Automatic annotation (TrEMBL):
It comes from the Bacteria. SUPFAM superfamilies: YhbY-like. The keyword RNA-binding applies. Transmembrane segments: none annotated. Residues 1-96 form the CRM domain. GO terms for molecular function: RNA binding. This is RNA-binding protein YhbY. Keywords: RNA-binding.
Length: 96
């Protein structure tokens, strides 16, 4: 569980990051979850963009991604979700 100070720190770091995954009208599937899990292991912090044609609500999508990947939802802003998961091998973000 992230504290408010840690979330603020991660939001500041995520400000410069561009979304690398997009959720479309098919929603969240297993292949997407495994790819996001791999990317989180490499990067620790990433953005996921939700397209306009997505049929599910953005909070539902964020819960599905967080549950499937074991990550924490840092922020939902507009149609972007910021996810954080501490890496076991490639740790480069030190939380305050």
């Amino acid at each position: 569980m992230l504290t408010g100070k840690q979330k603020r720190f991660l939001r500041a770091r995520a400000n410069q990051i561009k979304p690398i995954f997009q959720v479309g009208k098919t929603g969240v599937n297993e292949n997407m979850v495994t790819q996001i899990t791999d990317a989180l292991e490499k990067r620790e912090l990433l953005k996921v963009s939700i397209l306009q044609n997505c049929l599910e609500d953005k909070t539902v999508v964020s819960e599905q991604l967080a549950e499937g990947t074991g990550a924490e939802v840092v922020q939902i802003i507009g149609n972007n979700i910021v996810l954080y998961k501490e890496s076991t091998e490639n740790k480069h973000i030190v939380l305050p």
